[in-house]
Design the sequence.
């Protein structure tokens, strides 16, 4: 009798503990960004990677083994959305610390005519250390990449010589198998990036 | 002896539970605190003001990356009387052209910008110029905006008044 009470007690304690743990982990693993049941597969997307040193080489938009890749469509003449997003990512990296070294950033220009390799490298490099700048002047090649991410962008030249650019301002987090595991819309701030990246980094540990 | 063991056991369980709880709650606490911090305090409207006054608060400009030709400044504007922001300018030693812009989202989710010729300011209501919304856009930057510097932005209002705002260059919103 004593034994069975003990067993019951232990069982109850265990159950309570498990429930607590579970509720705890669901709470802190709540994503700010969009997590699809069927993640977008971008494992077959290649875009030319520009470096200051050598001619562009195809870059597969997939994170390195055991890492994450944040991909963003933007342009350097962008004063608001692009620097805000990159600054939020930088702030999140600083808060995450050493673990953030497993996250790199890919910046795809939607304005390849004005964005030169050097401009892009200096622009993105002024925010983060581990980055890839992707640029193609081939409209179709860029379109294929945008389609894979369900992103869009337009460039309009007005009669007075101004260039108006619109673009999807979502930051896509890609894992090492080429799946988009999280999509952070503009406005989630450094808090949003920190929250989601911490969860994702824990998951791939 | 057996009893004592059980006591020890339950203490251990409680301890583990407490740790689970604490780690859990401290996590959620820190996030609430941070989100609270972003909530702006309301500015009390001065209804009995004899003359219309315009208050500009929390102004800042984001550092511009090297080689970038554009920059943005943000601030909160409150006018005691109905008015509108109709222009912004900076010295040509900073940027060759300055406009008030709004970032907008199209039906397909893509975001762009458009010039705002007149931004309405309702009496006593704080109008926020913030990332992803309204901003003062500086184009054809003469040199990069660097942390530690200040940019003088002249705001022009529909009522005819102007105001010069000293805007610090920062990496993040203040």
Sequence:
């Amino acid at each position: 009798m004593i034994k069975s009470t003990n067993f019951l007690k232990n069982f109850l304690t265990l159950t309570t503990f498990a429930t607590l743990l579970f509720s705890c982990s669901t709470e802190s693993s709540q994503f700010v960004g969009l997590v699809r049941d069927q993640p977008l597969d971008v494992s077959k997307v290649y875009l030319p990677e520009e470096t200051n040193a050598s001619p562009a080489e195809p870059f597969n938009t997939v994170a390195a083994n055991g890492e994450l890749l944040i991909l963003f469509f933007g342009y350097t003449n962008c004063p608001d959305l692009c620097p805000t997003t990159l600054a939020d990512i930088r702030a999140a990296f600083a808060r995450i610390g050493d673990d953030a070294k497993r996250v790199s950033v890919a910046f795809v220009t939607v304005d390849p005519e004005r964005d030169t390799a050097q401009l892009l490298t200096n622009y993105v490099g002024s925010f983060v250390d581990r980055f890839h700048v992707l640029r193609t002047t081939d409209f179709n090649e860029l379109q294929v990449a945008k389609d894979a991410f369900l992103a869009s962008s337009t460039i309009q030249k007005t009669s007075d010589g101004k260039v108006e650019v619109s673009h999807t301002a979502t930051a896509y987090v890609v894992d090492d198998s080429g799946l988009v595991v999280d999509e952070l819309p503009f406005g989630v701030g450094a808090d949003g990036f920190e929250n989601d990246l911490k969860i994702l980094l824990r998951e791939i540990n | 002896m057996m009893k004592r063991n059980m006591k020890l056991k339950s203490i251990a369980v409680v301890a583990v539970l407490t740790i689970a709880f604490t780690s859990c709650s401290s996590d959620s606490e820190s996030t609430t605190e941070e989100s609270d911090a972003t909530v702006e305090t309301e500015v009390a409207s001065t209804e009995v003001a004899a003359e219309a006054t315009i208050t500009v608060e929390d102004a800042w400009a984001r550092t511009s990356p090297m080689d970038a030709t554009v920059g943005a400044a943000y601030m909160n504007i409150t006018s005691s009387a109905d008015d509108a922001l109709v222009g912004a300018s900076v010295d040509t030693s900073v940027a060759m052209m300055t406009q008030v812009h709004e970032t907008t989202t199209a039906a397909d989710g893509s975001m762009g910008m458009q010039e705002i010729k007149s931004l309405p300011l309702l009496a006593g209501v704080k109008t926020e110029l913030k990332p992803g919304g309204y901003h003062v856009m500086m184009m054809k930057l003469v040199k990069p905006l660097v942390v530690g510097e200040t940019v003088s932005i002249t705001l022009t209002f529909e009522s005819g008044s102007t105001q010069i705002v000293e805007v610090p260059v920062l990496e993040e919103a203040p």
Notes: Residues 1-37 of chain B form one domain. Chain B touches chain A at residues 6, 10, 13, 16-17, 20-21, 23-24, 27-28, 31, 34-35, 38, 62, 64-72, 101, 103, 106, 108-114, 131-132, 135, 137-138, 171-172 (CB under 8 Å). The mean pLDDT of chain B is 80. Strands of chain B lie at 54-62, 71-79, 83-89, 95-105, 110-115, 119-121, 127-129, 134-141, 150-157, 162-170.
